[in-house]
Design a protein that fits this description.
The protein is of the alpha+beta class. The protein has eleven helices and nine strands. The strands form two sheets. Strands 1, 2, 3, 4, 5, 6 and 7 form a seven-stranded mixed sheet that branches.
Length: 435
């Protein structure tokens, strides 16, 4: 059975989304860039910097039934408002993510953009009533944005047990529990956005000021020493915006931040003390499917531009597409795209059938393979376009930077390769024992 199969209802939705992306989102990209081009410094991070096309396209997406499509069936019962027009499996939503990847505006205007989707899933699954009312509902409505603060500037955050940000617990004389959060974070995607109102923060528990170590039985392990807390952004100090190979991604953007003596209560915790890694992994599994399928959409857009260039430009008396070198690039790119697509959809279907925990090896595998495969496609498209490939008139350079960054975001290649190798070795050892 084909991994690309869709029911007639979802196929119709996909066609609607494809048309919306091609006819509404891609043309609006120039409007978006034009709105930002003369803004400098702090002026790039104010509410007026949000291009008007964003809200316009959001309303169109809502009217077309393209809003909040990321919500998986097992969380649907927890949705307090703005439910998606149709329930999609991970595999089905993955196919639609490829369509959204063909415009950098599409994920946001369909309210399917990272890090908001992962944060909304966490709150749908684990959030308290108060957390949902204050933050989840505005996120589902697209009224605010959010951030996830994990990576730190002073430790190798690819080993998450190194996280140094502390959540110090205090017990009052009346038994009242409180916490103080301290630390530094960077690559906090979305924290620069003037619409960002809330951050989920991963921190290490510090019990030096109290006797109680919470109820989590895993607190004695390195993976049970961390907690995720919900922090209002007005308590977070923005140190500076960060650039990705020169791109600041304003007015959304990435930030280095300081968390200084932030007073919190048990109401700020997600699940409870020591559950940080469980929360982080719950949001990252589906997120990696989304990232990979959007990456494939980016590669397909660049591939289409490559084909157009090969059919319209001549060198040495022949169209580019008639030269053997160009033909090889086209053939390799077609193969890379199909390989990336099949790997990711196979992983997504396995998640639908068995759950993310069972298919950790497949999730790690696509996180390594897909950015590499899609980056090669875009690099070839740049080469075939020559000087136009590295200019801002086309999306190629921006996409190439994004895909290269994806080999580091959500954990570098080496970490995921380690996961795959350890699982493969464990399976091999079990087979040897069973002989």
């Amino acid at each position: 059975m084909s991994l690309s199969r869709l029911t007639p209802e979802i196929e119709a939705l996909k066609l609607k989304l494809d048309k919306f992306v091609k006819e509404r989102c891609q043309p609006a990209e120039r409007e978006y860039d034009f709105h930002m081009k003369d803004r400098v410094g702090r002026d790039r991070w104010v509410i007026e910097a949000i291009p008007p096309c964003i809200e316009r396209l959001k309303e169109e997406a809502k009217a077309l039934g393209l809003w909040n499509l990321f919500i998986p069936p097992h969380l649907y019962a927890h949705v307090p408002c703005c439910a998606p027009s149709v329930l999609l499996s991970y595999r089905e939503y993955g196919i639609l993510c490829e369509s959204m990847g063909k415009s950098f505006l599409a994920p946001e205007v369909c309210n399917c953009n990272a890090p908001d989707t992962g944060n909304m899933e966490v709150m749908l699954h684990f959030g308290t009533k108060k957390q949902k009312e204050k933050y989840l509902i505005p996120l589902l409505k697209g009224e605010i944005r959010s951030a996830f603060l994990m990576t730190e500037p002073d430790v190798a955050s690819s080993d998450a047990t190194n996280i140094a940000t502390t959540l110090k617990k205090f017990e009052g004389s009346n038994g009242e529990i409180s916490y103080i959060l301290n630390g530094s974070k960077w690559w906090s995607t979305g924290a620069m956005d003037p619409r960002c109102r809330v951050a989920l923060v991963l921190a290490r528990m510090d019990y030096s000021q109290c006797k109680s170590k919470g109820d989590n039985l895993s607190n004695n392990s390195s993976h049970g020493a961390h907690t995720v807390v919900v922090v209002d952004m007005n308590q977070v100090e923005i140190v500076r915006p960060l650039t990705v190979m020169g791109y600041d991604d304003a007015p959304h953007g990435h930030a280095q931040v300081e968390l200084t003596n932030i007073h919190l209560t048990p109401e700020n915790l997600i699940i409870g003390e020591g559950s940080g890694f469980a929360v982080a992994q719950a949001r990252l599994g589906p997120g990696r499917i989304h990232h990979c399928m959007r990456a494939i959409g980016m590669a397909v857009r660049c591939y289409d531009l490559m084909l157009e260039r090969a059919l319209s430009r001549k060198t040495f008396g022949k169209y580019l597409g008639q030269h053997g070198g160009c033909q090889q690039m086209i053939a390799d790119s077609a193969s890379d795209i199909e390989a990336a697509r099949l790997l990711t959809l196979s992983c997504a279907e396995a998640m639908d059938l068995y759950g993310a925990r069972v298919v950790r090896d497949k999730i790690a595998s696509i996180k390594v393979a897909v950015p590499a495969l899609t980056s090669r496609v875009v690099d070839r498209a740049v080469q075939i376009h020559g000087g136009a490939g590295v200019d801002g008139d086309l999306p190629l350079a921006r996409i190439l930077v994004g895909l290269r960054t994806l080999r580091i975001a959500d954990g570098p290649d080496a970490v995921h390769q380690r996961t795959v190798a350890r699982i493969e070795l464990k399976k091999a050892a079990e087979k040897m024992i069973a002989r």
